[in-house]
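[audit] Reproducing an earlier prediction to check determinism. Same input, same settings, fresh worker. If the tokens differ from the archived copy the diff job will pick it up downstream; this log only records the rerun itself.
[audit] input (510 residues):
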Amino acid sequence: MVNSIVLAVLLSLSSTFVSAIPYNTFDGDGFPACHNVSAIYHPSSVDEMVSIVKKAAASGTPVRASGKGHMWYDTMCSDDNNTVIIQTEGVNGISDFSLGSTEGSVMIEAGVTFFELAEYLHERGASIGYALVNWNMTIAGAVAMGAHRSSLREASMVAAGTKEIHIIDGTGTIQKVVRDDTNDTWLAASTSLGLLGPIARIKFTIYPDFKVYAKQNILEEADVLNGDIYGLIAPYATGNLWWWPYLKKFHQRYYDVVPTNLSPQQGFQSTFSITELEAITARTLLDSGKILPTSNMLAETIFYGLWSAPNFHEKTNDTAITTWPVYGWNYDVLIGGLYPGMLPEWDYNLRGYTLELAVPVTQANKLLKRVRALFDAEAAKGIIMTSTYRSGINIKFGRPYNDLLGQVWSVNNTDGADWTKGAIMFDFPSFRPTWGDNLRFNEPFYHNLATTLMNEFPCRPHWTKNTRDVLKQSVKNLDADHLKRFAAVRAKFDPKGMFKSVVGEIIGVM
């Protein structure tokens, strides 16, 4: 009898309390995008996504959609343990392909990745141009979170490629939002942070396929900091800089179109492929750098040497390409993926922290000089800071693209800065030690750098590459009118706030 009563009580408790589980980033266990969620759903169709949202709406349950979990920090959800995740990877249909002589379109579902779409389009003689980022991301996720490539000449915000965005609102109704740069609904949907609801489908702009070249130069730090940074990037279809602060060097990488018959080479880029032996060696060295700055100096020197050579293989036979320039089809050269039989670095416990802030490109020299001054201030104390990432500090750029929450809007700004020529994005990844408290060598330096930049420059944050603390500090640099207008659109799509997130709460649009 007693056992029956106990069992009844336990069953009652289990129906009252939510069983919370973490939802991880692409880094895997121990790296939560959301600390506690009540369920993770894996739909295989848009109709299933709609059904999940309708049921959640009826019960007042918070919902977040996730593609590949390409987050760096715990900011994807709110901290409500009742939250459910719609994992969209299985909703990956591609349809309505249409291509003319110069442009066309295709309809993609929520879970389609860049790699999946690139393969589909290449088989049909098409591509998505320059509105593309990492291979291990869904296009819908990239659009929602304001992801971008690096270009001052071409439209390289992923959202720039969208013609329509179909969003499941807070009632479970699909709202089709058509591009209209004069309409706040479009300007909110373009970089929505998922706060309007899960993206169900996107009508995306495509182009006839084309080949490009990749070229890389080595530059002295002083020549970059005192030179024409805009001129290093603007002439090319896409380009960026990698900074090696200990060695005081930069790599300048740039890409542009070439005739299809110029070279038979089919280059395929991989930034993240690594062998197990390479991973163990790098991790051992970098882990010792938690306490030994000389290990970090050696690591930067090795990584610089490796990055000076092309990180490309010939796609037809998987052999290393050893000389610049490299030629190939645009997606393979600009993004690529993993080499056959190899794993990405995070599968070998090579993981990182990062910080990404956008500043007007007209302030590029001032920004990088300020960072150099912070490095030098540590050196004056006998503390040598380095890059601990395989490709250095990533300096990216963005042509103006106007929506309410993107990093590179350029019209009617309230910060007094000139964004009309575009933005420079300072992206500072660093190795996360695998032992102890997981903090880096001279950890306070990184936090001081972030605060200094946000206090001295009109920094705009990348929405997936900054900690909660950095996002909180960045609010003072955001356009209050943009936030107000976005919040008004959000309230129409989601009046009950069921799609809430930490980011939305921090910037005050919930």
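[audit] rerun output stored. Observation attached for the diff report: The CA atoms of residues 272 and 345 lie 6 Å apart.
[audit] end
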